[in-house]
Amino acid sequence: MSCPGSFYVSRAALRLSKTFRINFQRIEGYPVDLYYLMDLSYSMEDDLRSIKSLGNQLFEALQGITKKGRIGFGSFVDKTVLPFTNTNPEKLKKPCAEKEQFCQPAFGYRHVLSMTADKATFQKEVNKQNISGNLDSPEGTLDAIMQAAVCGDRIGWRNSSTRIIVLTTDDGFHMAGDGKLAGILEPNDEKCYLENKIYSKSSEMDYPSVGQVATQLENNNIQPIFAVTKNMEGVYRKLSEMIPKSEVGVLSEDSRNVVELIKAAYNRLSSKVTVTHDSLPDNVKVTYTPKCPNGGGSGGDTGVCDNVGVGMMVSFDVTVTAKECLDRNISFTIGPLGIKDKLKVSVSTRCECECDDPQTDAHPYCNRQGKVNCGMCSCKDTFVGQKCECSIKGKDVSSLKAACQKDNGTECEGRGDCVCGVCQCHAIPGGLAYYGTHCECENESCEKYKNQLCGGNGKCICKNCVCDPEYEGPACQCKKSDEQCRSDQSVCNGRGTCQCNQCKCIEGYQRPFCKFCPACQTPCITKGKCIECLGFQTGPFSKNCSEACKSIHKFEMVDTLPPGKPCDVRDVENCRVFFTTFQLVGEDNYTCPELPNIYGIIGGSIAGVALIGLLILLLIKGIIYMNDLKEFRRFENEKKKAKWTDGANPLFQNATTTVANPTFTGE
Integrin beta subunit tail domain location, by residue (predicted)? Predict the structure, then answer.
């Protein structure tokens, strides 16, 4: 079906719309292909038993919808790799509990039965099905939907039929990216890989994304019905919002209500007509205005009518807008979702004017510097402008345009026209206008506070708030005050600014008062050389000490450092130097109790030790002298008290002297 249209668009009005009407009538007995896609994980055991017993009712319900109904069957569990399925060989053969007698080997997706109108064949194939199992809760649902959508010839979808997938499950689903858990990195390519009715790439290809599934369902005109348990209703309603023409129904615990659920969901799908189109170029727009028999409906990028009964006619006014002249003819299709029949629309534009122009080459409208061509001036070589009002006088057009560009950007910031190298700014809705050399300014986009430009406490000038004297802040939302920024009579300790009564500290310093800087280098590292220079006139700064160390405002020599851990550095002679610093207001502003004279301390210490030793020796000598003096005096006292007699000592004998001549012989 074709509906070509030709759009004749003048250069002065590059926005022309064309509206036409399409009609849609819902007929009775339209062919229906229903594919029953069932989760056969172990938790669905009772649901499988119900489906086996409800096979005839399901088929009869389909026949009640249309006499041209057919039904197929497929099943799924999950990828047969860790961590989704136990890969122990025994568990792959029988992934169910030990007590379960009827359990089929683990699998991803299996196409069981192609579309058939034979009730007995459907019942027979369903009765053959057994439960299977996997490890984690989410299933390979999207894998199964993707294969059922793209393997049309294997499934048996008819060209002219309403295509429905009924998905029954009691759990969530894996999606794109989950395959990485099993080391599967190859993305899903949205192609059919059924071999012997099994999805052969299940363990080699990642799960598809929700967007991929939605695209393939729409491309293949398939409408899904998600029949899920109550605990999964919220999950699948969110999924349904991302897939056009889909419905969600809540299963009972054993799925016995599935027949009624399918009938109700089908009625909702078939009574809702949604018209849309395929992709368009950026310069063409299509909008819909529904004419629903019961009123209501919604339009815009898609047209929707609800509660459309059998035999009812619905109409949609389709408006196609060409925003600019097209380089070539384009085509696109329009049609209701879920229906294969489409309307092809061809669009072309003709932008060449056929005008009865005056023949003069110096028309007054063009300031006599050009001629009129279809309402527009065609200027002489040395003139430019809409009315040839600008004489370039040796300049080229590119240099004039460059004068209208800010930082080599768009001419006049896209907010004005470049006329003879000067921007003429456009007006803004509401009576204002852009302004500035390059139309870069306007007074409506400043920050707001309490829904007022600049908080009502200033003026918006060129996109920036200029606050009243007593206010500050990007939206003039703060009264000027530094009360909460003051510490020790200084504002933010001189290491930041007070904005909105809060300190905005220099990088590294912390709120609330910018007092501490955990990440900054300690003064022990940065001021050591200055201390050496100021204290001993040595070190690398000795020649320009006052200039290099001007951040130290006060320097004091002390004998004892204040309490606290001092800095300990080595000077050029490898001597240890101890000092402390106090940071004043400001970022690099210190006062230092000067380090003591190390040599004086050492000399004084030695002299002190010698003096103390001498005093100790004198003290000992004095103690010994006093003790001896005391003993002597006691001896003298005892001597005076002694009583001596003059009698002879009876024991005393006088001495006898004998002299012998060694030469005497006795003769």
Answer: 524-597
Positions of CATH 2.60.40.1510 in the chain: 274-347
For 387-408, give the secondary structure using H, E and C: CCCEECCCCCHHHHHHHCECCC
Q: Which residues, in sequence order, are CB contacts of 291 under 8 Å at separation 6+?
A: 21, 297, 314, 315, 316, 317
Closest residue by Cα to residue 204 from 190, 188, 181: 188
Q: Are 400 and 423 in contact (CB under 8 A)?
A: no
Q: For 176-209, how does the pLDDT look when each residue is reduced to its tens digit (9 = 90+)?
A: 999 999 999 999 999 999 999 999 999 999 999 9
Nearest CA-CA partner of 41 in 185, 144, 165, 183: 144
Cβ(173)–Cβ(189) below 8 Å = no
Which CATH superfamily is 395-442 part of? Laminin (2.10.25.10)
Q: What is the dihedral of CA 464, 469, 471, 473, to 10 degrees?
A: 30
Q: Tell me which architecture the domain covering 448-479 has in CATH.
A: Ribbon (2.10)
Residue 636 to residue 632: CA distance in whole angstroms: 6
φ, ψ at 375 (rounded to 5°): 85, 0
Question: E strands, 323-421, where?
Answer: 330-336, 343-350, 370-373, 376-379, 383-384, 390-391, 416-419
- List strand residue ranges (DSSP E) for 183-272, in order: 194-195, 198-199, 222-228, 247-250
User: What would the CATH number be for the domain defined by 33-271?
Assistant: 3.40.50.410
CA–chain centroid gap for 327, Å, is 40
204: tokens are 């080699």
Kindly state the helix (H) or strand (E) to which residue 119 belongs, with its residue range.
Answer: helix 119-127
What is the pTM (predicted TM-score) of this model?
A: 0.50
Parts of the chain belonging to CATH 2.10.25.10: 395-442, 448-479
Rounded Cα gap, residues 513 and 522, in angstroms: 19
CA angle 236–237–239, rounded 5-degree value: 60
Place of tokens 């994980």: 41
Element of type H or E holding 290: strand 284-291
Both tokens of 225, joined, read 């019905």
Binned average pLDDT, 10 residues per bin, the chain of 667 residues: 36 62 83 92 86 81 84 93 89 82 88 91 90 89 95 91 91 93 93 94 94 92 91 93 89 79 83 86 87 81 85 88 82 84 83 72 88 84 82 75 81 84 82 85 87 90 90 87 79 83 84 80 73 74 74 70 74 75 66 54 81 90 88 82 62 72 67
Radius of gyration of the chain (CA): 52
pLDDT digits (tens, 9 = 90+) for 514-564: 888 877 777 776 777 777 777 777 777 767 777 777 777 677 777 677 776
Would you state the pLDDT for residue 73?
94
Residue of 531, 510, 508, 530 whose CA lies nearest to 521: 508
> What Å distances lie between residue 399 and 405, 420, 421, 423, CA to CA?
10, 10, 8, 14
User: Where does residue 419 fall: left (phi above 0), alpha (psi -120 to 50 degrees), or beta otherwise?
Assistant: beta
Under CATH, domain 274-347 is a member of which superfamily?
ntegrin, alpha v. Chain A, domain 3 (2.60.40.1510)
